[in-house]
Amino acid sequence: MGGTDAPALGDGDAALVEDLLDGSHRALARVITRIENRAAGYRGIVAALHEHTGGADVIGITGAPGAGKSTLVDKLAAAYRDRGDTVGVVAVDPSSPYTGGAVLGDRIRMASNVGDMDVFFRSMSARGQLGGLSMATADAVKALDAFGKDVVIIETVGAGQNEVDVVRTADTVAVLVQPGSGDDVQTLKAGILEIGDVFVVNKADMDGAERTLAELEEMVHRRESPTKGLGGGHHGFEVPDHPDGGNDETAGDAEGDDGDGDDEGEPEWIPEVVRTVANTGEGVAELIETFDAHATHLRESGAIEATKRRRYAEEIRTLVRSDVGALATAEIERRGGIDALADSVRRRETDPYSLAAEIVDPIAECVDDGEP
Amino acid sequence: MSAEQETRAVRCLVAKVGLDGHDRGAHVIARAFRDAGFEVVYSGLHRAPEEIVQAAVQEDVDVLGISILSGAHNTLVPKVIEGLKEYDAFEDTLILVGGIIPDDDETKLKELGVAEVFGPGTPMEETIEFIRNNLPERA
Known about the structure:
The structure holds two protein chains of two kinds.
Chain A: H1 11-21, H2 25-37, H3 42-50, E1 57-63, H4 69-82, E2 87-93, E3 102-104, E4 119-125, H5 132-147, E5 151-157, H6 161-167, E6 172-177, H7 182-195, E7 198-201, H8 209-230, H9 251-258, E8 272-275, H10 284-301, H11 303-334, H12 337-346, H13 352-369
Helix pairs in contact in A: 1-2, 1-3, 2-5, 5-6, 7-8, 9-11
Chain B: E1 11-16, H1 24-35, E2 39-42, H2 49-59, E3 63-68, H3 73-86, E4 94-99, H4 103-112, E5 116-118, H5 124-134
Helix pairs in contact in B: 2-3, 3-4
């Protein structure tokens, strides 16, 4: 698109990549900063790191504010460390839409991993817009993965589409729920339910925990039945031809299509409901077992390939969209800036559609010509 | 391609070190920094110097603000600075100390590499202005 081939890697950046691969924490931190800043040359760095990635299990943890995500992540990290795994954590917090400022507070809860550099904890906030956050998170995960972390945890408040996109960059997604409010579960219905591979009822020593557990169990199994007929249903009966082929949502689908020849023995993953008390560490071991089981399931069923394909497709799309967007922005600038254009529309000299066409047509022409 | 916009933000670590339970000041500062458009990582209370170093390195902050009201600055701050040097992170981190620091100690701290010491009553704008003017250059 931009005329050149692979993104260039400057000398300094090459050394930085080298240092990161050699295990320098400083270099890793610096690379993530470059990624966050969208600093010149960061693409070359991420491109160079890509071939070194793929070794880490990536786990996403989301849930409402106060559900206990940070505390749980702390305990998870400690438990992974106990069994000898190294851990990377990317904690995403919202930033002010007005000033861009943010207070990133998740670090406060990382009490169990004091002074242990093999837990690399990094706070990030939403900067820029348009899928930028999920892109930056995915790239930061790549840096941690290339560095050699065995497990990378992405932690984010489950508040909106942005956050859902972020957490979807993980292989295994855990949704945290706090007991006691039916409302919590109500909000799950709105969309977070679909992304959870594991549901965690945290603070399970609180009143109402049993009820929340039961509600989640019910929901998980209710979700199972309507989707069954639609697509992912490798459940006991064969799905010959998709009568309604257009469903590209469920991870299992694409793989199911490819795997027509196999016997349809790949079981679908039914989300697990796990109870934890993050404060005391209760249930953390079981949660890790569940994560492992899901990772194994992904590998053995081949679903991991579909998951990764979906994710990389999303990355390519986001990148291309953002680059084309940047071209368009430059074109707008060349024509006097967005404010001037908006004013001309206000004065009825032209209209938004004509303007958009004027700006995009030259770009479209280049594409039609097949010229790079 | 290079048209992609840089989205740089000033990153600060607001740190409480040692046995000092007074964090109102740190909260106020964190909030003011946030409102100034900075990204603020808050350490929480009772951190050991190694934790502060770990956080500063991993978060790759431009600014490390250490709040000390316990009088132990002469022991704690040098430890933090040494740790930063160990990780090659001292040179491009702007180190600030906030709290009640006697003048003699202030001189010593500055010799060690603290950029500025802010005492009680310092207007928030002054601190923010200082940061904006003294941000370390970075690649």
